[in-house]
Amino acid sequence: MSGSGSSTVRRRAFVLGSAAATAAAALAGPLTRPAAAAGFGWRDDGTHYVVDTGANLVFKVGKANGDLTSLVYRGTEYQGYGGKNSHIESGLGASTVTLTQSGSTILVSVAYGTLRHYYAARSGENNIYLWTRKADSSVSATRYILRVRAGLFPNDQPDSYTYTTSTIEASDVFAKSDGQTRSKHYSRLRVIDYDSIGWTTGSVGLWIVRSNHEKASGGPFYRSLLRHQSADGGGLYEILHYGENQTEAERYGLQGPYVIAFTDGGAPSSALYPGTLTTPWADSLGISGYVPDSGRGRVAGVGIAGRDTAHPYTVGLAGASAQYWAAARASDGYFSVSRVLPGTYTLTVYKGELAVHSTQVTVSAGATTTLNTLTVPASNDPSAANAVWRIGDWNGTPSGFKNADLMTYAHPSDVRAAPWTGNVVIGSGTETSAFPCYLWKDVNSGLLVYFRLTAAQAAAAHTLRIGVTTAYANGRPQVTVNDTWTSAIPSPPTQPSTRSLTVGSYRGNNHTFTYVVPAGAWHTDTSRYNVLRIDVVSGSGTTGFLSAGTAIDAIDLLA
Questions:
Q1: Strand 297-301 relative to strand 368-371: parallel, antiparallel, unpaired?
Q2: Rounded to whole angstroms, how far apart are CA atoms 97 and 246?
Q3: Among 56, 100, 288, 289, which is least packed, fewest CB within 10 Å?
Q4: Tens-digit pLDDT profile for residues 490-520
């Protein structure tokens, strides 16, 4: 999904054009040019490799550290803010940087310890192709950041804090004078939702087209920072391994290509998107860890039975060294996951974001692993259980709950948020929309749910289920019924240890808490409302929206 409106990021590219190119060439020697697009070539100015793509893009890579130091498109410099370059992490430091040319491709290689990073230019294209190979944990590499000069793409998107007036959390969540909040974390998007991220003025667009993220972590529904903008400038990111609300270990190996792409204002060509981009021209460049399409395989499934057709389904592959995913076809559940590295993977079927089936698959190079129809057992889908009442839907997300959509691009204190307090009545028709998507110990713990039972229902014990999608500071629900019966405090499930609910992410580890409520806890007078109180308990957390909390998927009382 690309940015909207003016929300596209550009960078400076050093373009050698007409008189400027002639003057530079006179100072630094002639460009080395193949028989390709006019102007395509490179030169060494002593401290940088200067690459002209032969289109409208010229860029520089520092020979000392591998930083991208200049990015000029159509004569305008886009690179840099605050005196900083574009690079892995916050810059690698002293590196070995080399350049090779193979016909219509120029490759700049950066070696820093065990890490390898690459920039490739193709003749006649306004694109830079990048790969990053993390061999191990000896070099921290969570991101590549493209830094963009201030004032080129002014916007007031949720991840732009150019116009904010105060800081409300840590040093990365801000508020405007009108009470709206902004943060680099507020991208709205899951990885599966976008192919490129950037900004546009309408006449110039600057984008990062993401890689397939096979060496990243977190799966298809992971959310992380993708771009930011402040008065100092902006940044576009390719995430290599991001730790905020992360559920998986870091993976190592080569990630890419991801692409820095300039356009005449529109979205990048879909030919650059993950899933469609092919790079046979890179097969023989000697990129460390590169695996051509011939060394990869495919997984295809003829269909998925037992689906709830009201929901989208996604199939994910997760292994120790790689991850992949694909949407299942709505009509029959057919899926195809292509360009998969050889190995054994856990295949998971997701209803929305809720895992409802898993199996193991093995992928071989040059082959397709074909699976017969996968069947989702009814016992794996909580929605299949007969319930006395239900709040929300079991889909692995807080969708439909109060403030749920807003919380992917705003802080809970945002002026646009509806009150986080308020009790709900089963049968009112607003049970879900009135129930807060998040519960915190210091904000809205003790929320009440009112409901009536028939005489037969009140004569029996029932199981109460509360599904959550993540938790902060071990926040978890303890329940009380009619002030006469209180559950034990449940053990906290494994969840990420970082911030989540305040930085635009509900995506942790889905977990269901179950409580068996004895018959003696219910009112026998069927005209009276039973009252369920849900408290958030934890010995951790601080205050307010940073107190212990949790995100709700669904709540129901089983028949």
A1: parallel
A2: 32
A3: 100
A4: 999 999 999 999 999 999 999 999 999 999 9
